[in-house]
Every structure is written in C-alpha cells, then in structure tokens.
Amino acid sequence: MNSWLIPPGTRPAPAFARHLSLNGAVVVALLALVVLWTLPMATFYETPPWDNVEELFWGGSMQWGYYKHPPLPSWLMGLPVLLAGRQPWLTYAAGVGCGVGALYIMWRWSLGMMPPMRAALAVLLGSLVTYHVQRATIFNHNTVQLLPMAGYWWMLWRVLRRPSAGGRFDWLWLGVFAALSMLTKYSALVQFAVGAGFILREGSWRDARVRRDLLRAGGVALLLMAPHLAWLVQHGDQTIGYARHSVHPSGPLLKHVHPRLLRILLVQVARLSPMLLFVAWAWFTRERGTAQEKTPQGGFDRRFLAWATFGPLCLVLAMSVLLHMRLVASWLSTFFLPVAVWAVMVVPGLEADRWTRRRWVGTLTVAAILHIAGSFGQAWVDGVWSARHGYITRANLPSGQIAEAVQAVWHERAGDRPLKLMVGDTWFTGAVVLHMDPDVQLLIDGDPRTSPWLPPDALAREGGMVLILDTPEFRSEGALLEPLLATASCSGSLRLPWAGEDDARSVRVRWGILPGSDVQEELRGCLPAAAP
Question: Which InterPro entries does this UniProt record tie to the protein (predicted)?
Fold first, then answer.
C-alpha cells in the first residue's frame, strides 16, 4: 500500500486493516457505478431497449425456459417486477448490477494473484470495458452472463491451482457458476471448451484431485440444470431452433460471413478502447529500467489468464470461419472479463502498488470523468438530442404518447369494455403496454407459444387490440400479426410525430380491435368512429 494513503502523523495500519479499507472503497465505487449509469437512462430514455422490454414481460412469469433463451435473467427480473411493477429503471439497475458484480468477483480473484493496489487497478480498467458497465444497461442474457461467468473462471482457477486445499468447496461453487452460466445462455459452452482445453494443455487432468473435483462440479451443474433440461426436451424445437437460426445464415447473407469478421474485430477494439488507451498511457509513461515483480505462481496465473482472455475469441472466430457461422459483436460480451487482470499482470507500467499519489489521483479522476460523461452523454444523445435533430432511435420513441392515443381509440370504439390484452411485437407494443394499466397483458407476436404466461385461448376468449408499427426502420415483423389484423372487428391507423412528421421519422401504426367469445354479443363489434 502506498504511503500517501496513510495520513501524516499516524502509525501505519496493519495490512489486514488496509485491505479491508481498500475492499470497502472498491465496493462503494462499484455501487456508485450502478447509480451513475441507472439514473441518466431512467431520466432521458423515453423507451427502453428491446431486450429490456422483453425481460420486463418475461420476468412476470416464472418458467423453466423461454422460447428464445434459458430462464435465469427472467428469474432475476421476476422479484423486482413483482414488487415494483414493470418499471424500465429496474432493468438498467439490474443490468449494471450484473456487470459490477462480475467486476467484484474479478477483484476477489485478482487478490489471489497480485498485490491489492494492482487488483484495484484491474477493477478500474475492467470498468472501462464497455461491455461491463456502459452496455450493461441493456439487460439481456449477454449482460447477465457476466456475473456467473466471472465466478466460473475464478473457481476453475482455484480448483486447478490448489486442488482440494484446506477442505475448501471450490468444486461446489464451480458447478454452481457453471450451471448459472448455462441457465443464462448456452454460449457458455464456448468458455467451458476453452477451460477444458487449458486443462488438457496444462496436464492438470493427470492429478486425481483435479479429476475428482471436476466430476463433482459437473454433477452439481447437472443437478441444478435438471429441471431446465427436462423443459428443453419438451420445448427444444423453439429454443434450439432459435439458436440454430441465429448462428447459421442462409442465402446471400452467407457471402458476408468472412468479411464481417474483420468488422466484428474492429468493434471489439472500439469497445475495449477506453481501457486500451489507459494501458497505452501507462506503458508510455512508465519508469524505465524497473523490473516487474514476479510471484512464484506467476507462470501458471499468466498462462491461465491468457487462455481465459484470448481463448474464447480465438475459438469463436475459428468456428465462424470453418463452420460458416454468423457472429454478432454483442455475442462476445463475456469474453473480456479477465482482460484487465491479464493486462495488469503482464504490461509494464501497470505496477499500481508502486504508483505515486499524483499518478493515482490523475487516473481516478480521468476514469470518473469518463464514466460521468459516458452515462449522461449516452442517455441524453440517444434519448433527447437525437429526437431534436431528426433521428429516430429506440430510446426516443414517444411510447407514452402512443399509449394515450391507443387507449383513446379503444375507449372510442369499444366503449366501456376493459382493455385486457394487447397483441404485437415485443419491443414496440411492449413499450406501449408499459404505460398502460398493469393488468394489461402482452401476447408477443400473436403467438401463444411466445407468451406462456397466458392461457392458449386467451385471445380467442377475451379479444384484444393488435398493433403493427409501419415506420420503416423499426417495422413490426411478427408473421401472425397481419392475419390477426385481417380478422379485426374494426381497424384503422394512427400517425404521431417521432423525430419528425415525414413517413421515415413519424410513428405510423395500424390497429385493430379483435372480438372475443366471452364478450357479450352486442359488444363484440365496434362503435362507430366519432365525427371529426
């Protein structure tokens, strides 16, 4: 610990006390990031991102699986939704919470490999990787997987480095984190494969204690995943089919798979750039002629971190080329969790335990400015500035105004009949429903299979209102929506300003009121439209 952290005229605190103080500072800083990145989004975003809207509805119903993904993110959102309702800010806080939770795990892991000040620097650099905080405001399966995947790498390191040391239960936690990673997204298999590759390359499998602990961890993981695996046997056609469609393009898209790899790599560099700039600055301004400290276990730690940092990226790139798999940049969100720890361990100039007070203050100040400017800047540009300058985004969709207009149409054409069910795509219609009565339900894409929280005959029995967004850039794509609209008792259209009045920058919506068998005969039709 540097002497500048100790007030003048006082005796140095014991090492344990200093460690507790630093641990508290790290925890407070991480919690501050949750608040800092939640408030601007909740303030300036009129409408949440697609995935956030989706999880607000999925979280309202506890299932063993959902038509696109495993259930853990929706489970995490379930209790907050139950307590506070479908509030968008919950998704921003939960997403960033998963990201900073992963950073805290990296902090605990780093303490086993390097001095506390270097571990703190690794956390600071990790917070500048956009996947870990900035993009974590998008609450989806990639974001949630940051947390258990960080735990997986930490526990695998402990199992391999000191198998069964001191009666610990690292194997148990390894199984728990592996199961939670799979219950979040099946792409965890990529990082499991990298871990297995390291075990083979290192020869750790020859140790009977390692084999025993890995088998125990596998048993724990299978036990925790058993209910979801049983669900998958019955509903795998949806989930596996979605995954297969996502990674295997067809038709003309296939020709663009290889050129896209370069673009994806450039996107990764861009999303790592805040951290990379800090690392480059530290390297160029380092003290020349000083050797980096090495720990007795440094060789194993560096090899492990190198595999965990670069292995998943190399593996998916090779799979994309050899198997003609499609890649999306955001699918790599969890691949860079150890990159800051690896950098602090191997890059000269990042020996933070030797830094002066001035160097630390400058680093912390610049990092704080980046987070404050990033959070408020991103939220204001996407949610406010873009609309004022004629650019439509998901963040500036006037979903509250649309909800008012839709409800006005319903009361005008359906009278006192309560609106119970909205039918439409996840993002647009879901965003509109967020501004309605909490009892209004959403039938996603008009397909009962995508909304298992509703009885299969809910639409036929209760009726409802279908919405189709025709604004070109964000057009609704549900295949069943057009046929449902054709069966409406009455239909019409709405047009509202979005970021302008023309076709490309306004909200253009077609609506239809669907009859229900439980509705009294005289109310199944629509009242005549009010005279202009």
Answer: LipidA_mod_glycosyltrf_83 (IPR050297), RgtA/B/C-like (IPR038731)
